[in-house]
Amino acid sequence: MSGCETCDAKKLVRSPSGLRMVPEHRSARSPFGLDEPPWVPDKECPRCMQCDTKFDFITRKHHCRRCGKCFCDKCCSKKVPLPRMCFVDPVRQCAECALISQKETEFYDKQLKVLMNGATFFVTPGTSDKSELMVCRLSNNQRYLVLDGDSHYEIEIIQISTVQILTEGFTPGGGNTRAIGMILQYKVPGSEELKQMKFTAGEDFSCNKKLSASWLAAMHKATKLLYESRDQ
């Protein structure tokens, strides 16, 4: 078993927002995770930050668990799963945040499993003209991209700088294109030098093109979440 696959101990913590199951060490957190936002202090929000309704004994204020802003019950009534913050149960979110969290649910319910199951690509490191057939997958703890063939690589997700998805086919509306590979740029810990790898879906029958395309689509979504986590 590789070092990146060791089980990361987790602990149950309670915050004003709800129960969360988080890694014991911050360094073990998922690269797609988000920190809990600070809540807007009650004294700074006399009115709902969405509909401007004034708060009183009847109209109570609620904080969105994703953005931390203050809303009335009507504008913050949805309870939606928020795995990026490690909440155990669905939590109260404003309408805008709830929509974003619902869209992310597909990634956590489906695409994350696709990435962990892996797919086969021809991998070309750097400027080399030699490719190697490798199984590419996301580690169970979501922190490494593991490449297995005659060679073995473990790329830390947090060190990835850019991901460019390669496609073929084109129409004016952008339809009928399919993902056929990607170019990955990343840093090795302790170095500022950028390294590059090119992934290309195989053309022979032994490589499942549909599986490769699904894996690349999931990687594209994972990259967006990674950038968002970084920019927080």
- Average of pLDDT: 88
Our estimate of the beta-strand percent is 25-35%
What is the CATH architecture annotation of the largest domain? Answer: Roll
Shape: elongated
Q: State the order of secondary-structure elements, H for helix, E for strand.
A: EEEEEEHEEEEEEEH
What is the CATH class designation of the largest domain? Mainly Beta
Sheet with most strands: 7 strands, antiparallel
How many helix segments? 2
- The percent of residues in helical segments reads 10-25%
Classification by helices and strands: alpha+beta
E-strand count: 13
The figure for the number of domains is 2
CA gyration radius, whole angstroms: 21 Å
Query: Which fold name corresponds to the CATH topology of the largest domain?
Result: PH-domain like
Across the major sheet, the strand order is 10-9-8-7-13-12-11
